[in-house]
Each structure stands twice: as C-alpha cells, then as structure tokens.
Amino acid sequence: MDTKQEGHRMMAFFVPKRLGREICQPIKTTAANWQNMTTDWRNKTMKMGTTQRSYNSVIAYAADPNFDRKSLTVDLAVDVQPGSCITSAGAAYVSGADCLLVLSHHNAGADAHIIVADRGVYIKQDTIIAVMGATAGPLAVAALTASGDIRTTTPDAE
Predict the structure, then answer these.
(1) CA dihedral sign of residues 68, 74, 79, 85
(2) 12 and 90 both lie in a single domain
(3) Vertex 132, ends 81 and 141: CA angle to 5°?
(4) What is the pTM of this model?
(5) What letter does residue 6 receive in the DSSP assignment?
(6) Is 47 a member of any domain?
(7) 92 and 36 in a common domain
(8) C-beta separation of 81 from 115 below 8 A
(9) Which H helix or E strand runs over 112?
(10) Sign of the four-CA dihedral 139, 132, 99, 148
(11) Structural domain of 21
(12) Same-domain check for residues 69 and 113
C-alpha cells in the first residue's frame, strides 16, 4: 500500500494486480482515521463455514484400495454421511453386531446406493463418536472392530 500526503488529507492507494497490470484505487481519508483504517482489518475475523465430512475424515489408513470399501443398495431410513453407522437393512445403528460404516453422503430413501467400509482399514474412532453420539458411537466402534477386518487408530490427544 502506497501513501501520499495531500494537504490535510492522506491518500492511500491499494494496488491489486490483475492480468499483469496494476490498477490504482485511491481512497481518501483523514489523518485521524488513518490509524483506524490500518489497524481495523486486524481486529476483524472472517466466519468460516464447516466442511462436510469425507472418506478421509473417517479412514486413517487403507491397506488396499480395492478391498477397503464396497457399494450397497439399501432402503435408507435416515440421512447418512461419512462416519454414520447403519444396519444392513438401512436403519440407524443403535446396538448389536449388525453394523456398517458409511463412507458416502446420501439422503434417506428407497434404493440408495451407498459406499461402506469393507476390510483392511484403520478408522478414526473420534469421527464415528462425533457423528453417532456418545452412546451409540462406542458401541458402533466395538461392533465394527469385533471381526478384526476393521481396526481403529488411537484417538488424537487434546
């Protein structure tokens, strides 16, 4: 940013570069407001949105990309996202041994094509607990890892 003194006013030139040319946009301000103008941008924060979960949010490591997932067609009773757990019938997982880890987004409905974890993967149990809740999350992790095809990583230290 270039500045020039012009009488009792100070002019600031913000010089963005576009297509190799410089474009000057003069902004007139008084000397009293100059301090506010130069420091005010540091005090502002931009609200960041949340990002959707993805395959990488759930899977920490996959031994083989050919066998780490499988595609199913089910009648989904609930909306799912990566980290959700469902039964093989498409209902939300609550408890029991029938548990599938969803790796794709899909809305509830008939004949939903979803991707679920198959074998040879390490899962991030923190993500599953965050999606499923404190009650169903640990039960889902225990059901998924019971056969040994799916393993868990150590939770991140805070």
Answers:
(1) negative
(2) no
(3) 105
(4) 0.66
(5) E
(6) no
(7) no
(8) no
(9) strand 109-117
(10) negative
(11) 2-42
(12) yes
Laid out side by side, the sheet with 2-6 consists of 2-6, 9-14, 25-30
Q: Are residues 140 and 78 both part of a single domain? A: yes
Which tens digit of pLDDT belongs to each residue from 46-95?
566 677 888 889 999 998 888 999 999 999 999 999 999 999 999 999 99
Q: Is residue 22 in some structural domain?
A: yes
Q: How many residues does the chain have?
A: 158
35: left (phi over 0), alpha (psi -120 to 50) or beta: alpha
CATH assignment of the domain containing 84 = 2.40.300
- Rounded to an integer, what distance in angstroms lies between the CA atom of residue 141 and that of residue 143? 6
Strand pairing category for 150-152 and 121-123: parallel
Phi-psi region of 20 (alpha: psi -120 to 50; beta: other; left: phi over 0): left
DSSP-assigned beta bridge partners for residue 2:
13
Tokens of 15: 């010089």
Q: Is the dihedral of CA 115, 51, 143, 132 positive or negative?
A: negative
- Residues 132, 116: contact at Cβ < 8 Å? no
Q: Which amino acid is at 90?
A: G
- Other beta carbons within 10 angstroms of residue 45's beta carbon come to 6
Q: Which helix (H) or strand (E) holds 44?
A: none
User: How many structural domains is the chain composed of?
Assistant: 2
Query: What percentage of the chain carries pLDDT values higher than 90?
Result: 51
The reply to whether 157 falls in a domain is no
